[in-house]
Every structure is written in structure tokens, then in C-alpha cells.
């Protein structure tokens, strides 16, 4: 019995080493992106920011898009951008076909874009819209769980209803969507990934996207230590989405952008808590939200002054 355990331990160690080698090879030899042409892709929070950029990227890859957002106007704006991409792609295909004497075939499908007004913080809204998508569009093959909100308050100054709203949209909504992949969201991703593996459902892939600060305006004003900031500026949304798209289309389990975030996650796992605190203070990460909070508070005070409150 003891010998079996020893042998099994070495087999496990070999598998771990092999996984490390394969992960390293993927850094050196970029895997080929899979095709999503014709696949139904749901994007939450598609009305702006990263959600809109994801929609445009999937449109360029000829996916059928289902856009969810709480704001109908901004969601329709994104949809029109997607339609324009579809039209440009069709025009280019026709031009190429004429140039080569009809050798290149016209795509056998015409992708479409569908818009739905959804509050992902309300489970009834999610359930009813999900069923409507199944009826009107078909089964969903890709889900980009992008929708998110930020409170803009210190915790002790944040009203209970705003805390609840933040948790519902940023975390709970992941459970009410079609169950694909913020700290609670990461835990959900990990637990669901293991559950899928244990059930041996090989057709379901998940990608966890962990970016650094993204310059979408959502966290405008967030600043780390000024001496460090030139080396770690906020990410351009376009760059962040390009990296995420690459990870999604190559079935990468997790993508950290920039790559130094991988080191941060690793060090958090092995270093004592006080060491992590020292690192955060050195980088200015412990107070990076302070300028953002100050801006939000000033904006609220200005609004209250204008309204005569």
C-alpha cells in the first residue's frame, strides 16, 4: 500500500511538471485561435467600455451577437457598430470574390446582432431574457460575463443598498447567467471549472480575465505611486480586449494583463500577509482608490449643490 502511494505521488509530480512545461510552451509557441464564426455569443454590459469592444472583436470574427445591457440607447449604439462591421466584411468579401474571378465563396451564413435590455442584478430579468434568447436566437455557445458597477464610496460611507447592488451585479449575476465566468467571481470561476472537470464535460471551456486598471473611465482617477505609474500605466481598453480575445479563442484558463500580474498572484500565494502589505504600500496600491473616491464625492456634492439639496 505504501509503495502504491509513493508511486502515485511521483506520477502526480510528473503530471504537474508536464503541465508547467506545456504552459511554458504556450508562452513561446502561440496556439492557433479557434473559429467562432456563426456561433451565438452573449455579451453582458455591451453598451459601452470593454463590453462594446468585445462586441466589435467578435463581430470581426463573424459571431452572431446577443447584446445585453441595462441601457437600451447605448446597447443599440453598440449594435449599429456591429452591423457596420458586418457590412464592411461583406463588402470586402464581394470585392475579393470579383478580383479572383469567383474563386472565393461567399460565407454560407449571415451573422446578426440581437439586443436585449437586461438588469443582470435581477434574477427574473436574467431568467426571462435567457429563455427569450433560446427561443429567438438559439443555444448560446459563448458568454462574456462583462457587466459590472462600482460604488465610488468608502466602505463605511457606502449605503447598504449600494453594497447590495454592487455584489449582485459584480458577483451574484455570474451565477444567474448561463453560468460562465471580481474576488467572488474568481472563486466562482475556480469552483465551477473544477466541477466541470469532475463531471468530464470536455466541451465547456472557461477563461478568467484578470486585468490591471483599465482606462475605460469607470475607475477614472485611480492612481498608484507616481514614481511607479510610468512603468504600470492604466491599460488601454483595446489592448486589454485584444489580450482577452486571444485567451478566449485559444481556450486559455486564465489571462492576467499585464503579465506582471501573474507574479503578483504567485507572491500572494506564498508570502506572509505583512509582506504583501509592504508591497502594496510600496506600489501605492493600498490607496490607489483614494483619488477616485475624492472625485466621485466632489461630483456628488456638485450635483447636490445644483439641485439645491
Automatic annotation (TrEMBL):
TM stretches of this protein: 7-29
Short name of any one Pfam family annotated for the protein: adh_short
Highest taxon, organism lineage: Eukaryota
GO molecular function: oxidoreductase activity, acting on the CH-OH group of donors, NAD or NADP as acceptor
Keyword Transmembrane helix in record: yes
GO cellular component terms given for this protein: lipid droplet
Keyword terms, alphabetized: Membrane, Transmembrane, Transmembrane helix
Family (UniProt): Belongs to the short-chain dehydrogenases/reductases (SDR) family.
Protein name per Swiss-Prot or TrEMBL: Retinol dehydrogenase 10a
Organism of origin: Cyprinus carpio (Common carp)
Amino acid at each position: 500500500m505504501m509503495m502504491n502511494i509513493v508511486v502515485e505521488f511521483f506520477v502526480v509530480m510528473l503530471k504537474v511538471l508536464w503541465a508547467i512545461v506545456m504552459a511554458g510552451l504556450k508562452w513561446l509557441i502561440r496556439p492557433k485561435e479557434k473559429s467562432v464564426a456563426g456561433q451565438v455569443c452573449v455579451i453582458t454590459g455591451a453598451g459601452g467600455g470593454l463590453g462594446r469592444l468585445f462586441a466589435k472583436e467578435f463581430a470581426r470574427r463573424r459571431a452572431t451577437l446577443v447584446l445585453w445591457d441595462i441601457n437600451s440607447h447605448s446597447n443599440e449604439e453598440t449594435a449599429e457598430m456591429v452591423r457596420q462591421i458586418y457590412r464592411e466584411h461583406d463588402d470586402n468579401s464581394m470585392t475579393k470574390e470579383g478580383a479572383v474571378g469567383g474563386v472565393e465563396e461567399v460565407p454560407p451564413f449571415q451573422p446578426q446582432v440581437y439586443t436585449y435590455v437586461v438588469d443582470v442584478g435581477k434574477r427574473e430579468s436574467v431568467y426571462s431574457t435567457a429563455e427569450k434568447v433560446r427561443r429567438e436566437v438559439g443555444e448560446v455557445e459563448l458568454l462574456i460575463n462583462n457587466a459590472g458597477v462600482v460604488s465610488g464610496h468608502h466602505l463605511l460611507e457606502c449605503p447598504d443598498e449600494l453594497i447590495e447592488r454592487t455584489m449582485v451585479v459584480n458577483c451574484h449575476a455570474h451565477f444567474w447567467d448561463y453560468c460562465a465566468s471580481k474576488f467572488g467571481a474568481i472563486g466562482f470561476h475556480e469552483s465551477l471549472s473544477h466541477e466541470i472537470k469532475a463531471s468530464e464535460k470536455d466541451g465547456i471551456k472557461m477563461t478568467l480575465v484578470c486585468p490591471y486598471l483599465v482606462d475605460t473611465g469607470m475607475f477614472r482617477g485611480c492612481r498608484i505611486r507616481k514614481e511607479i505609474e510610468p512603468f504600470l500605466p492604466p491599460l488601454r481598453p483595446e489592448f486589454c480586449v485584444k489580450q482577452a480575445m486571444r485567451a478566449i479563442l485559444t481556450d486559455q484558463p486564465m489571462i492576467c494583463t499585464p503579465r506582471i500580474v501573474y507574479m503578483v498572484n504567485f507572491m500572494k500565494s506564498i508570502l506572509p500577509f505583512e509582506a504583501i502589505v509592504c508591497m502594496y504600500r510600496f506600489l501605492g496600491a493600498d490607496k490607489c482608490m483614494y483619488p477616485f473616491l475624492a472625485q466621485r464625492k466632489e461630483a456628488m456634492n456638485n450635483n447636490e449643490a445644483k439641485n439645491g439639496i
